Amino acid sequence: MKSILYNETFTRISEEKRNKILQTATNEFAEHGFESANINTIAKKSGISIGAMYSYFNSKENLFITIIQYAVETLKSVLDEIMLSDHDLLFKLEKIIQAIQLNSRENVQLTKLYGQLTAENRSDLISQIVSDMESVSADIYTKFLEQAQNEKIIRDDINVNLFAFFLDNLFITLQFSYSCEYYKKRMKIFVGEDIFENDDLVAEQLLEFIKSAFLFNV
Fold first, then answer.
1. How far, in Å, CA of 189 to CA of 191, rounded?
2. Residues near 42 by beta carbon (within 8 Å), at least 6 away in sequence
3. Closest CA to 215 of 136, 157, 140, 161
4. Is 57 helix (H, G, I), strand (E, B) or coil?
5. Contact (Cβ atoms closer than 8 angstroms) between residue 96 and residue 157
6. Roughly what angle, to the nearest 10 degrees, separates helices 123-150 and 60-83?
7. From CA 120, how far away is CA 216, in angstroms rounded?
8. Ordered mean pLDDT values, 10 residues apiece, the chain (218 residues)
9. CB within 8 Å of 60: residues ≥ 6 apart
């Protein structure tokens, strides 16, 4: 069970004000990383005093982890909605790909924040965050593949834990390709300048790639 790292005072303010603080903090951490992010800047841009900020969060670490937890819950809600539907394996995979395309464009800063985590040197902080973030997709994808294997939809010789990891890596790369300038340029080099005008083609071809690895002759 995740720890609640904000104080009760944070729950007493309006939802609009809470969302503004969380979004402002997300932007600051995404642009500067944890160490260089300035909590005074976050407070000022949020329209609150630094005293109020520390009444909501006891430390910058607590604010940072709360942002990550928010991102994790957002991811989990999207995946749960897709996975709990009655549709078949391929339809669910296609919907995940489409959700990544949409959410990566709409939540660029969250993706940048994810990228910043790979550069952080705080092993204690990263250990907790990685556990929170990656356990969500690992659990969902592994159970998803186990069910598909039990139903004889995918090959028996697949190691579902490793293939869940491979699948998640594909999705992470796709996520960065729609939100980070380096990866966007990289994708254009491989497949052309107009690739971001053809989401359907990307989704269709990635699904074909996944099918060739996971499925029987479909």
1. 6
2. 21, 24, 25, 28, 53, 63
3. 157
4. coil
5. no
6. 10
7. 41
8. 81 94 92 90 96 95 88 83 87 93 85 73 69 82 92 91 95 90 94 95 95 75
9. 34, 37, 39
Calpha distance 60→185 (Å, rounded):
33
Rounded distance, CA 9 to CA 82, Å? Answer: 34
Asked if 60 and 37 count as a contact pair (C-beta separation under 8 A), the reply is yes
Give yes or no for a contact between 40 and 52, defined as CB atoms under 8 angstroms apart. Answer: no
- Secondary structure letter of residue 195 according to DSSP: G
- Cα–Cα distance for residue pair 32/111, rounded to 1 Å: 13
Token output for 65: 């982890």
Tell me which residue has tokens 């729609």.
178
Query: Both tokens of residue 171?
Result: 């999705």
Residues in the chain: 218
- Find all residues with CB under 8 Å of 8, minimum gap 6, and list them: none
- Tokens 């994810």 -> residue: 114
Q: Which long-range contacts (CB under 8 A, 24 or more apart) does 113-119 make?
A: 113/26, 113/29, 113/30, 113/67, 113/68, 113/71, 114/71, 114/175, 115/176, 115/180, 116/29, 116/30, 116/33, 116/34, 119/33
